[in-house]
Amino acid sequence: MHTKKKLIVTALVAAFALAGCATTASAPKRADVKWPNLIVHLHGGNGKAYLVDPATDSVVATLDTEKSAALGGTTPDGRKVYVGAEGEGKDTVTVIDLDKRAVVAKVKTGNRPKHPVVSPNGKLVMVNYWGLDDGKLRVAFIDTATDKVVKNVDLSVAGQAKGPTSMHNAWSYDSRYAFTVDRVDNHFVIIDTTDWSVKKIKMPSKPHYVAPSPDGKEVWVVVEGEDRDKNPPGGLVYSIGSFEEIAQIKMPLIGQGVIEGHHGNFSQDGKYFFILNRGPGGKLDGTEVAVFDAATKKFVTRTDTGSTGIGHTYNTPDGRYEVVTNYGNNLVSVIDNTQGFKVVKNLAVGKGRMGHIAFTPDGRYGYLSNAGDGNLHKLDMQTLTVVKEIKTGNAAGGSQVLNVWTNVFEELPR
């Protein structure tokens, strides 16, 4: 074959390969995501971030963020963490460089930034807000290369803001679609970052949490619900691309004295979807974890936890366990996926509610944050016992603990 023709054929093959990659919304493989060698504990009470070395369980840096800086997101390369400050009067996203173990930027973005989440390709940080900006609900996008805001999408709202105006974000795995929620008018919001067009889908009650399916084909939206029978908590499922509704699922709410759907996430193998009943702010007594088949959208089973006001089910890296954290008490419930999704341990930890957990890459240990005592508690995942307390704050206000990138909250790279 002549050299010129060979070059043309090679270019065409490469072009087709790139086109195929562009249209396949597959999840990043585990090898594409770097696990940092640090655990980051955010402390909204004192406006600090504590960097912990899991090799020694020692605090190697204490950084100034902002008061109420409770939630953050890691870049896929494991180098940066972006932290929102959701408190009244706050407008700043703090940027932490994990290699430098330092705050490298403070980005003013909008009214009460809630939860920065980084796109799978690592280029953009989506930030949603608990307050309105000039009467509109903002979604900001920060360029990770410059740590500057490159786009504000300001959404018009018709209703009056009562409480948090948004909640949690997520990205499609191809980094094209940015997903968020409007809790003023109860919309699921899809932003196409190729042209910044916006699609809104009306929800039956307040939307709380968005979770794209691991295969990249669907997006599940958890709604809080308004009553037990006509408008219960559950989820709605949409196809990514057309965003046509595929299914609606409802929690059974057996023996639940209160109702309010909170978070939902997929099992690590993507076969099941969990939704938690938390209960409203004044009555954080919900205990039901409902399990659905991700393929058929059918209800599989349910379980009750010793943990109350349950909010989150965190996957362990090997996919065996779901660690349930909460807003009600200091019990952490561990669900074994290999034993019919039963609770195998209710573990008392620390002196306040259990908010979040981050794992070592091998899954041997988990680091639990406690909102009451403000510290980290090291959980041995083989014995399901707490083996150490690490002083990080040592006062009320302990918030998220995180390390590796995720495009949602409780799921890990696959």
UniProtKB/TrEMBL annotation:
The keyword Signal applies. Keywords: Signal. The keyword Signal applies. PANTHER family: DIHYDRO-HEME D1 DEHYDROGENASE, PROTEIN NIRF. PROSITE patterns: PROKAR_LIPOPROTEIN. It comes from Thiobacter aerophilum. This is Cytochrome D1 domain-containing protein. Residues 1-27 form the signal peptide.
